[in-house]
Q: What sequence folds into this?
């Protein structure tokens, strides 16, 4: 039967490895939302559930309210642009690696705040002290250049790699010497801190950075990110939330979910599952002789596959073609999540093996 004659209903359903937010929310979070639904609460983040979530997060941070303020926002883009805008004067700039999420994935949201981005060459998706300092020194022709003030990094990075404690410490030392602030995009902070080779703690982030945020959307929540702001930057932060439309009247919806994620170890258990599923896929690719475009450290797998195999896999699985190359291969990104079905991972690996052996 010609492909054009096949109806959508006759095609096999595709399992999605495109992102880590295709599923709704973990059942415990949904149960908590239902259980508390009829209670009356104060608005705009002053409800008892948001305050409980802040207390629980501070306990995990091993920090006090004299050290950090915690605010909940609905999305990662709002977390980034509000954090950045709150730190910078109009003539100040943010420094980010070329592959940084804010550089190419947020539709110019940072530039829309009126701040220039200064690009720094990355190494395995990470900011290095030497590259940072070199680019910093190249942007000192004042007042004709925007003044570097904030360094943006993400953990895990856009390539799924993570910062070690030594790497983040080295960056922190350079930033303090140069008078720069550090912001950590934590959309995938859970998988970064749960990675097998990770040696960073949440307390280390408090000590080594100025602002970071903890992603809930990609870690079992319906929506929501928790911004952790050091107190020297916290004054007036809530006004930035309000001006950017991120101070929700029903902030309780985020507070309830973060309280459930951090009441025990659920946040990290879900992250560990995502990493385990990615490692199974990554190991299978390597056993079959396929190269990895980046080391698999968290829940993102970047593999170099022939176009024929990519097309066949796309009939049954959703994933992102990261880069098409001129040699007939493509770099694909496979993303696992807190809810990834282990059986579907086994099916994916089985299909890759079958087609590899058939074409071999």
A:
């Amino acid at each position: 039967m010609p492909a054009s004659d096949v109806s959508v209903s006759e095609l096999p359903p595709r399992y999605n490895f495109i992102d880590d937010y295709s599923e709704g929310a973990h059942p415990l979070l949904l149960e908590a939302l239902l259980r508390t639904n009829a209670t009356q609460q104060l608005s705009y983040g002053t409800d008892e559930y948001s305050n409980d979530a802040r207390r629980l997060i501070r306990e995990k941070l091993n920090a006090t309210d004299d050290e950090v303020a915690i605010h909940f926002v609905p999305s990662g883009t709002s977390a980034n642009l509000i954090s950045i805008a709150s730190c910078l004067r109009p003539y100040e700039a943010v420094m980010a690696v070329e592959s940084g999420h804010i550089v190419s994935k947020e539709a110019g949201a940072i530039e829309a705040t009126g701040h220039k981005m200064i690009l720094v060459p990355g190494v395995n998706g990470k900011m290095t002290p030497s590259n940072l300092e070199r680019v910093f020194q190249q942007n000192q022709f004042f007042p004709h250049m925007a003044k570097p003030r904030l360094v943006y990094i993400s953990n895990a990075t856009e390539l799924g790699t993570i910062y070690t404690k030594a790497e983040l410490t080295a960056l922190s030392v350079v930033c303090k010497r140069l008078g720069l602030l550090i912001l950590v995009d934590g959309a995938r902070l859970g998988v970064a801190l749960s990675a097998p080779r990770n040696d960073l703690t949440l307390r280390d982030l408090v000590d080594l950075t100025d602002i970071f945020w903890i992603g809930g959307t990609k870690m079992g929540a319906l929506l929501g990110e928790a911004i952790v702001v050091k107190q020297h930057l916290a004054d007036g932060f809530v006004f930035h939330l309000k001006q950017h439309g991120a101070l929700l009247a029903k902030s309780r919806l985020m507070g309830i979910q973060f309280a459930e994620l951090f009441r025990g170890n659920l946040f990290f258990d879900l992250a560990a599952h995502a990493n385990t599923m990615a490692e199974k896929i990554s190991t299978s690719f390597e056993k079959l002789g396929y190269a990895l475009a980046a080391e698999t450290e968290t829940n993102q797998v970047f593999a170099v596959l022939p176009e024929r195999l990519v097309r066949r896999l796309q009939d049954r699985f959703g994933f992102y073609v990261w880069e098409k190359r001129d040699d007939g291969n493509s770099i694909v990104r496979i993303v696992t999540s807190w809810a990834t079905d282990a059986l579907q991972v086994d099916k994916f690996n089985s299909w890759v093996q079958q087609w590899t052996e058939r074409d071999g």
User: Anything to note?
Assistant: The CA atoms of residues 192 and 297 lie 8 Å apart. Confidence is low (pLDDT under 50) at residues 1-11. The chain has 15 helices and 13 strands. The longest helix spans residues 266-287.
